[in-house]
Amino acid sequence: MKIKFYPTLFALVVTVSLSAQKLSRAEKKIVSTIEKNNAEAIDFLEKVVNINSGTLNAEGVKKVGMVFKDAFDDIGFETTWIEMPADMNRSGHLFAETSGSKGKKLLLIGHLDTVFEEDSPFQTFEMVNDSIAHAPGGNDMKGGDVIVLYALKALSDNGLLDDAQIIVAFTGDEESTGDPLSISRKDLIDAAKRSDVALGFETSTGFNYATVARRGASGWTVEVEGKRAHSSGIFSEGTGAGAIFEMSRILHQFYTDVKGEDLLTFNPGVLLGGTFVNYDELTSKGDAFGKTNVVAQKAIVKGGLRFISEEQKERARAKMREIVANNLPKTSASVSFTDSYPAMQPTDGNLELLSTLNKVSLDLKQGEVLAYDPGRRGAADVSFVAKYVDGLDGLGTMGSNAHTPQETVNLNTIEALTKRTAILIYRLINTK
């Protein structure tokens, strides 16, 4: 295998010298079963899409979880619904497991929640044409969950899961992770510590791509205090610059002095400033009061930071702290950080998994599979387990416009992607 990197674009080309081989007799049976069950899989997807499971709709998330729970029970998995503490305001997680000691021990990751809450006008599965459906969360990521289920169903139907350890972990709060992470991701991390490989089924970035690296995500908040005074005194020795000018300085220097490292981005998502400022963390909403003849007393910015390593994250934070400390006259400022998702780095083990997936795809005559640019992917649950196991992500359904009322899922690709997943799982659980 030859691996070629292009650091700026993080392109990876994997060339496998062996030509595609024929599928084994068992693998052909798997493929045949998936073809037979494909219409049922699409009906199942429509069913779970039509149950609202916005992250804050804890009851709806659990309802979707129970539908999947019954399906995993039917194929012989031991299922558990793991409740989260009530004060976290999040639903629980569904885990389904088989026990064994043969081959690689697998952790298959999905999530039950979507970004579309109960008050969203986008609620139902609706066909656009014979292959595309508008579907809230159908692409991100109930379609990926269905691929996991029907790949495992094909293996189970053919008696090919004997003595294999497979843990399916469908979290209930991926789109807005419950706090603290030490509780909301404890079960996922514990499962990873008992596994060798993690496969994530977030939405695919293209039929011939998989994810070997994802950037981490961190939140940041800058709060500024200025001296409240009549605007005629702005810039004077006694009044100074005011909170909004100081916040403007800080954001401008973030842009000029922190920006520049490959795969490092940071975004100020909301800005409030004036005489009085209120911001609600739970709803991400706020308000400000101020007058043009009053120097602003308060300003606040909430933002996000994306990074490919802990070292890169800490370098960015150090620069931000330095900038925030260099205040304009009569102002003060502070910056605080909250960790959300760690980075998933492109390890040798991840690249070897990509090679295995690539071989599966070639054997299925589905074409070569390449690594996707992590700069174009958001964070995901697989990142929490990346330090413990080798992993791939982006193995879910194809579609477009995820997280928007125009979200679609491409139903024509589900069968092929389920075949790819099932054969990959089969080969991994038969590999030492």
TrEMBL record:
Q: Which domain of life is it from?
A: Bacteria
Q: Where is the Peptidase M20 dimerisation domain?
A: 212-331
Cofactor(s) needed for function = Zn(2+)
Under the heading InterPro entries, the entry gives: ArgE/DapE_CS (IPR001261), Bact_exopeptidase_dim_dom (IPR036264), Peptidase_M20 (IPR002933), Peptidase_M20_dimer (IPR011650), Peptidase_M20A (IPR050072)
Q: Which UniProt keywords apply?
A: Hydrolase, Metal-binding, Zinc
* PANTHER family noted in UniProt: ACETYLORNITHINE DEACETYLASE (PTHR43808), ARGE_DAPE-RELATED DEACYLASE (PTHR43808:SF32)
Descriptive protein name: M20/M25/M40 family metallo-hydrolase
| Gene source species | Flagellimonas profundi
